[in-house]
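Regression test case RT-17, inverse folding.

Input:
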C-alpha cells in the first residue's frame, strides 16, 4: 500500500476569484465597498510605531476584543469566542459539537463550506431542501413535522440567516422553534449577513444553552483582510469551543487583528452609517433590476441573487466579465440560472446597471 492511499482527500471549498486587475469592479465575494472605521486607521498607525510588541505572542484569550464584543452585544465575556474569520470559528464548532455520529442538518442551498467541513471531519450530514421560493422551512427541522420528516434526532443543525447565496432571512420566532425542538444537539446560526436587514437570534441565548450565534467582521465591519470572526453562546458552549481551540492552536489571532478589531466594534456610528448606505444602494439596485425584468428573492444581505428570463446566467456572467465586472455564478442544481451580485458603492452599482442595460439591449 502506498502512502498516497492513506491521505485524507476532500473536495475543497472554492472561494470567489481575487482578480489582479485593480480596474475591475469586483462584486463576487461580498466584501464591504467602504474602508473600515477611521479609528481602525489610527490604531494601525499606532501599532506600526510600536512594532516592538510584535516580537511577543498575542494574548491567546484575545481579551481586548472579547470584552469589547461582550459590551457591544450585552453578554458576559465568557460567552464570546473569537477566531480567524467566521470560517475558523465555524470549522472549530463543527469539530467541537458535531461528534455524535448522527447526521447533522443544513439546507441544500447554502454556504458551500458546510459540506466541506462535514466531509473533512467525517461528519455524516443530510441536506434539507429549501422551499421552491428558496426560503428555509423551519418545519423541516422539527421532529415529526414538515415535508422532510426527521427519522432520528439530528447530530446538529446549522443554517445561515440570512441564507447565502439566496439572501433570504428567517424570522427569529422560527429559529426559536428550531432551538426549542432540538435540545439534544447544538444549533448554529451563521449570521454573516445579519447586519443588512435581518434580526439577530442573539436575543434567544438566555433561553437555550445549545444555541450558538456566529458573526464576522468581513462584511458589515469592512475588515475581510484582517480575518476576524466571533461566536456568542452559553458559557458552557464557549468553554468547550475554547478547549478545542487551545488543543489545536492557542495563538490563532494575531495582535493587529485583536487591536484593530476592538476599534471597529467601538465605532458604532460608523458601522451603522456604512451598513445603512449599503442597504440604501441595494434597494435602488433592486428597483433597477426589476425594471430590466430580473427575478430575485428579496435580499436582506449585501448582495442580490438574480436571474433574467431572457438570458442564461453563464452568458450574462461572461458578458459582464467582458465589461470588467465580476460577479459570482454557481453552476449547481436549482441555482445555475442565478448570479450573486455583491452591492458595491453607488457609483459601482450605477455602472453595473448601465452595463446590464447594454447587454440586454434595453
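Golden output:
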Amino acid at each position: 500500500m502506498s502512502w498516497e492511499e492513506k491521505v485524507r482527500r476532500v473536495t475543497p471549498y472554492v472561494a470567489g476569484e481575487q482578480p489582479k486587475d485593480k480596474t475591475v469592479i469586483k462584486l463576487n465575494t461580498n466584501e464591504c465597498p467602504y474602508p473600515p472605521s477611521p479609528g481602525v486607521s489610527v490604531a494601525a498607525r499606532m501599532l506600526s510605531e510600536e512594532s516592538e510588541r510584535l516580537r511577543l505572542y498575542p494574548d491567546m484569550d484575545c481579551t481586548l476584543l472579547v470584552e469589547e464584543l461582550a459590551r457591544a452585544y450585552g453578554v458576559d465575556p465568557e460567552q464570546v469566542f473569537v477566531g480567524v474569520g467566521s470560517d475558523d470559528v465555524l470549522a472549530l464548532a463543527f469539530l467541537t459539537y458535531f461528534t455524535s455520529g448522527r447526521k447533522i442538518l443544513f439546507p441544500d442551498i447554502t454556504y458551500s463550506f458546510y459540506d466541506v467541513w462535514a466531509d473533512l471531519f467525517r461528519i455524516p450530514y443530510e441536506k434539507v431542501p429549501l422551499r421552491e421560493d428558496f426560503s428555509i422551512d423551519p418545519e423541516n427541522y422539527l421532529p415529526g413535522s414538515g415535508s422532510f420528516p426527521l427519522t432520528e434526532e439530528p447530530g446538529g443543525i446549522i443554517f445561515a440567516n440570512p441564507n447565502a447565496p439566496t439572501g433570504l432571512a428567517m424570522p427569529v420566532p422560527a429559529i426559536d422553534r428550531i432551538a426549542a425542538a432540538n435540545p439534544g444537539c447544538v444549533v448554529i446560526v451563521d449570521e454573516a449577513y445579519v447586519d443588512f436587514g435581518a434580526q439577530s437570534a442573539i436575543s434567544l441565548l438566555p433561553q437555550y444553552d445549545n444555541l450558538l450565534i456566529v458573526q464576522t467582521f468581513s462584511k458589515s465591519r469592512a475588515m475581510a483582510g484582517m480575518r476576524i470572526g466571533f461566536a456568542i453562546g452559553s458559557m458552557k458552549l464557549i468553554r468547550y469551543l475554547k478547549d478545542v481551540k487551545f488543543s489545536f492552536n492557542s495563538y490563532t489571532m494575531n495582535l493587529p487583528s485583536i487591536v484593530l478589531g476592538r476599534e471597529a466594534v467601538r465605532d458604532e456610528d460608523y458601522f451603522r452609517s456604512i451598513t445603512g448606505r449599503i442597504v440604501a444602494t441595494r434597494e435602488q439596485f433592486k428597483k433597477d433590476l426589476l425594471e430590466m425584468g430580473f427575478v430575485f428573492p428579496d435580499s436582506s444581505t449585501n448582495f442580490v441573487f438574480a436571474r433574467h428570463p431572457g438570458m442564461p446566467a453563464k452568458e450574462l456572467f461572461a458578458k459582464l466579465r467582458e465589461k470588467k465586472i465580476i460577479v459570482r455564478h454557481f453552476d449547481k442544481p436549482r441555482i445555475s440560472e442565478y448570479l450573486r451580485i455583491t452591492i458595491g458603492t453607488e457609483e459601482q452599482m450605477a455602472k453595473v446597471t448601465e452595463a446590464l442595460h447594454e447587454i440586454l439591449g434595453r
